[in-house]
Amino acid sequence: MYDVVVAGGGPAGSAAALTLARAGRSVLLADAGAGPPQVGEALPAAARPLLRDLAVADAVPGPGHLPRLTMLSAWGSPAVAATESVADPHGPGWHLDRGLFDGRLRDAARAAGVRVEARAIVRAPVRRADGTWALALRTPEGRQLLCCRWLVDATGRRAAIAVACGATRTIEDRLIALHRTERPGTERPEAHHPETERPETERPEGASGPALVASAPDGWWYTAPLPSGLVLVARFTDADLPPARAHAGFRRAAAHTSRLEPVTGDGWIAAGDAAATFDPLSSQGILTALATGMAAGRALDAHLAGDRAALRRYAARIAAITAAHRRNRLDHYALERRWPAALFWRRRHIATPPANPEPHDTHPAHFDHSR
């Protein structure tokens, strides 16, 4: 019998497992390890105190990632503004090798006493009369039957456990990402189209060059160097707009803002993207995953120790994070007024987002690209 089974081996799941194990709880972390590797993600310098709190400040960032020294932005104007990391009291952030980053977090959890199961999926959890869970763990070696007192849902946007337990997910927009990786200096025909033009000539070339965010009539572009030496090119637009169908060779990924209600239930708690997802413009996804994972672990440990208000405080914290993100998202999109008639921008210039639109595809946000 485990105290806690954590479903999901990303940053949120590892942070929750690590926090619980260090509090003396018995924990199993099920890492599905499925899907293509995530690329192009950045960790802001504001994560340094959080990594110290998790006691992984030296081991997890480490070699293999690129420092994020400069951020270029063309937003609200065609002029490109540069922000240097020397202005940040925390120092530079990182362009991450996500596989390396996530693996180091799981290694830290394992070192703290967590049983980490690779390529493992939690299936068919059933709440028993005594208040514990019976579940199946599907692994390459076969099916294992386990019991635990609590479940942490860190399964990402699917929130598979929470939704199966009756929670609902509200989707606030239709944002998607069209992305690909390429060699530095690759000619991009779409960059010269009048409806997709980016300030490419003002962006230093090479994988060690700065990242760039640039708004466009039907969305915005993001380019960033990768630790592999390649460059990520991503276009963000709404799934029902023409640019969503216009780019051959680009992969498509969900990027919408969403929230789960409730974020805790009878024997379960959600963390990371399972609890809420945020506009990628904020660059806060991994930071928030780490923060909510650690907060979920602390709340659950306190609850198991008899603190009946711990889960309510956690739910209130997630609500405050999502409310702050909504305010900051509206403020930042309001800075871009060059295309007032464009549907993408009209949608983001209204105060109330559409209620749960169809997405069309398979810590508060600061919207500060200096980090």
Describe the protein.
By secondary structure, the chain is α+β, with helices and mostly antiparallel strands. The protein folds into two domains: 2-66 and 95-172 and 257-348, FAD/NAD(P)-binding domain; 175-254. It has helices at 11-22, 48-53, 98-111, 160-164, 285-304, 310-334, 343-348, and strands at residues 2-7, 27-31, 42-43, 66-68, 70-74, 81-84, 93-95, 115-118, 121-127, 133-139, 142-153, 168-171, 175-182, 211-216, 219-225, 231-238, 251-254, 258-261, 264-265, 268-270, 276-277. Helix 1 (11-22) packs parallel to helix 3, helix 1 (11-22) packs parallel to helix 5 (285-304) and helix 5 packs antiparallel against helix 6 (310-334). The chain is globular, with a radius of gyration of 21 Å. It starts with a strand and ends in a 23-residue tail after the last helix.
Q: Output the CATH topology of the largest domain.
A: FAD/NAD(P)-binding domain
Q: Over all CA atoms, what is the radius of gyration?
A: 21 Å
Number of domains: 2
Helicity, in percent?
10-25%
Query: Mind telling me the CATH class of the largest domain?
Result: Alpha Beta
E-strand count: 21
The portion of residues forming beta strands comes to 25-35%
Gross CATH architecture of the largest domain:
3-Layer(bba) Sandwich
- The termini sit apart by 42 Å
CATH superfamily membership of the largest domain: FAD/NAD(P)-binding domain
**Class of secondary structure makeup:** alpha+beta
Main beta sheet: strand number and arrangement?
A: 8 strands, mixed
- Principal-axes geometry comes out as globular
Query: What is the average of the pLDDT values?
Result: 88
Poorly predicted runs of 5 or more residues: 189-208, 352-371
The number of distinct helices, counting runs of at least 4 residues, comes to 7
Order of helices and strands: EHEEHEEEEHEEEEHEEEEEEEEEEHHH
